[in-house]
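Proteins fold reproducibly. Next comes a concrete instance:

***
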Amino acid sequence: MAGKRIAWVDAAKGVAMLAVIVGHTAVVPTPLHEAAISFHIPLFFMLAGYTFKPRGVAEVARKSVTRLLVPWLMLSLVALLPHCTDPSADGVRLIAKALFYNLSWSDSTTVHFVGMSWFLLALFVARIMLAAVLALKERAGLGRLGEGVVAAAALLGGAWLARRIGPMCPLNLTAATVGMGFMLVGHLYATIDPDELPVGRRALPRMLLAAVAWALCVRYSGIDMGVNQYVEVWPLGIAGAIAAAYLICSLCRLAEDAIPQAMRPLNFTGRHSMTIYTIHAVDSAIPWGTLSLFSGVATPWPVVLLLRIAVVMGIAASLV
């Protein structure tokens, strides 16, 4: 995997990116909306774990600064722009507080939010945590079982802690911990079922099982890592996200072998997911959910969704 792009990984990233846009466009819950939010961010984390190459903690941090930390700061300041007009010490303190807590949304008047950029800082911290965990695993001689135990502890422990302390966690570390757990799941998947192995009939029973698990767990998918919100039966939400991610990855691998030409739009979306994510973060200032295109008549949200995707993808295509 080193040094080359993996087509099906790009396609799966494309699915995740489109699911993010779906989740941010629908103003009322629909089956498509619920399905999208049940896996989009976990899938991003798991794919990041799949392609993660173990290195020293310092090297991972250094290489992630320009890729993640700088865009996070820039997008956060854009989201906080309406609050940047107050040059007083109190105004600066509120901006610093927003960056410190790194929340995607807040209805509090004392804590502003950074919007979609929260994910970039969470991924930055999760990458560092993953590098440290893999280094310790190597020293301790732990195998896949040990790695799986750590992944489960991070997922369940991080979500449990988030439910206990709420959204006010410094640097949103609970989200980074859960994200690192998802990354470990992706890393395990890479060692158990590497890209070099073809996906054939052997995968069909597992795909069917994953589809059933996802369908059963999707109603518990109320996981919003950006504000540390997890539903009552959150372990099922986590299990559903993993099942959905496995199913999507397997389908993308099969499709890349069978119909590679048809997968090009998803490949493009995944290959340029950072650019598209950035554009989408900025376009979130537009009230898409209540957009009216025709004489003040509310436009059906699927139409708005298609328009929004077309706008974002068009801008991205003109930039890359």
Remarks:
- The chain has one domain: 7-268.
- Residues 234-258 form the longest helix (25 residues).
